[in-house]
Amino acid sequence: MFGFWLMFLVPVWAVLVSKRLPDRQRLAAWWAVGVLFSLMIELRYEVGGDWFNYLDHFKATSHLRFSEVFDKGDPGHYFLNWLVARLGGSVYWVNLIYGSVLMWGTVVFCRKQPWPWLALAVAVPYMLVVVGMGYSRQAVALGFALLGLVALGEHRVRSFLVLIALGALFHKSAVLLLPIAALAASRNRFLTAGLVGATFVLLYWLLLSEEADALWTNYVEAQMHSQGAKIRVLMNAIPAALMLVWGKRLAPDPQERKLWTWIALAALLCLPIVSLATTAVDRVALYLIPIQIFVFSRIPRLAGGNIRLRTLLVLGVIAYYAAVLFVWLNFATHAQYWLPYQFKPFV
């Protein structure tokens, strides 16, 4: 468990000391932590519920001809595995690229928050440990989604669309974020809706059209069950509710508040329907995890100028996510596939 707790304690420690560091040293610290976490994701050994599945993907793809690679689902994933194998690399190279994209998105997103190290501490227990080390394709798609959400918050709609499209090459479910751009747009709403609609149609035709029936059958009609889905949906719903209640204080900028209000509504909508399509909603909820990072890294704002209350709020967020990590590692059904954390150079 030490590796996972190390990942959590690093940003917690930084919350306490980072404001004392000069700007240049802060930037160096972020680079160091980003590289460290990327390496921990890359060089994990037999860690994660799908470890052997992804190893099988790599071995099987390495024997394919180039023309056969794109017959598989998620073309970005299989092409990358094929290319790495052809270059003489291993599955660890693939994990490095996936971990680097996830950490790139995470670092960029967290540094946009008022309490960036607190944001990273929130990201560790589930997004980085569970998703980053267990759901490799969703992890790289989530990395692109985080970059896309930053772009959308800065009114760069085209960049958002490109980043979501890149994520969808690795896991098709990333396209579910596209409607957010149309809902959140305040500048030239019709142009934005047109761009989003055209992008969605194109991605559907390229990535989903041949598998739509199978996806519906497997995820909805067959009632595939993801254990813990209700808890994960609830984890998104709590900050979503806080966003709706204290949105003006958490996000003073109207455009930013509009974007995250829509994301909060999407997170709350998952609650009543998670029992109807457990796995489908669970997959959607992965892309709503950023609501946790956004809201809880802004909770200290609710204290205003009260330093004591602000300190208590920061410690409360840290304690909550420490409890999340502790409970998941000790009581989650599938935690056994993450334990013990093994670092390849030391195995």
Shape: globular
Instruction: Count the beta strands.
Output: 0
Encode the helix/strand succession as letters: HHHHHHHHHHHHHHHHH
How confident overall, as mean pLDDT? Answer: 85
Work out the radius of gyration.
20 Å
Strand proportion: under 5%
- Structural class call reads mainly alpha
Q: Number of DSSP helices?
A: 17
Uncertain parts = 202-225
Biggest pleated-sheet summary: none
Gap between N and C termini, in Å?
15 Å
What share of the residues lie within helices?
Answer: over 70%
Structural notes for this entry:
The protein is an all-alpha fold. It has helices at 2-17, 23-42, 51-61, 66-69, 75-86, 91-111, 116-134, 136-153, 157-170, 178-184, 189-208, 212-221, 229-250, 254-273, 278-286, 290-296, 307-331. The longest helix is centred in the last third of the chain and has 25 residues, at 307-331. The radius of gyration is 20 Å and the shape is globular.
Structure summarized in a few sentences:
By secondary structure, the chain is mainly alpha-helical. It is built from 17 helices and no strands.
Could you name the key traits of this structure?
single chain; 347 residues; mainly alpha; 0% strand; globular
Task: Summarize the topology.
Layout: H1 2-17, H2 23-42, H3 51-61, H4 66-69, H5 75-86, H6 91-111, H7 116-134, H8 136-153, H9 157-170, H10 178-184, H11 189-208, H12 212-221, H13 229-250, H14 254-273, H15 278-286, H16 290-296, H17 307-331
Helix pairs in contact: 1-7, 2-6, 3-5, 5-9, 6-7, 6-8, 7-8, 7-16, 7-17, 8-9, 9-11, 10-11, 10-14, 13-14, 13-15, 13-16
